[in-house]
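User:
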Amino acid sequence: MIEDILAMNFSHRVRRSPLLLMLLAAACVRASAGGSGATLPINSAETAVAPDAAADSLLTDITSLDPTIIVEMRYATTNNFTGATLPGYLANRAFLRTDAAAALARVHDRLRQNGLGLKVFDAYRPVRATVAMMDWTDRVNRRDLVTNGYIASRSRHNLGLAVDLTLVNLRSGAELDMGTPFDTFSEAAHTANATGSAAENRQLLKSAMQRQGFTNYDKEWWHFSYSIPAPLRFDRVIR
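Assistant: Predicted structure:
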């Protein structure tokens, strides 16, 4: 994969050539996207961290497009797998690259016609939070979560191009049955590994997201990615 080429063969050239960096990052997106049924990898390309000013101009608060989207940023609280608030999360606000945010608003709008909506658990994630997740795997001796593809050292969340979410009943606010909670690190959370209403609800979420250009990560029913050319990594604190 292009990520491997970047890491193993061209890393020193990439760091010295911003133009080469952008071209390779764009190529990575195209290769990852594949066909309509392709599964995007959870890891992003080795893109440089962009200045905060770039994040301010390129990231959009999703509730500015639709304030009825429910935002429950788990990593801004202790209610997450680490048991601690992660660095970089200072507010319950969800940001995405503008194109992805607009697509997500369209998903919510179409679901709303049937009394359903979206609840977002995570969206753009500062690089420092990803580093903290990796540090946590070392402290608790769970590097298997990295090798098995549940926690990434280079996450598409850092690009503002991934979102973790579920479906809710808009009238009651209750989450639909998805079979497992968010951030369940087991095969039970693989999108295809469900039966009954949970399977139906996972497919409903997947279909609604796919229609607007998102791709599901098949090991996590809640994780969806969006592709744009030449993405950038951000470490802007969420305020």
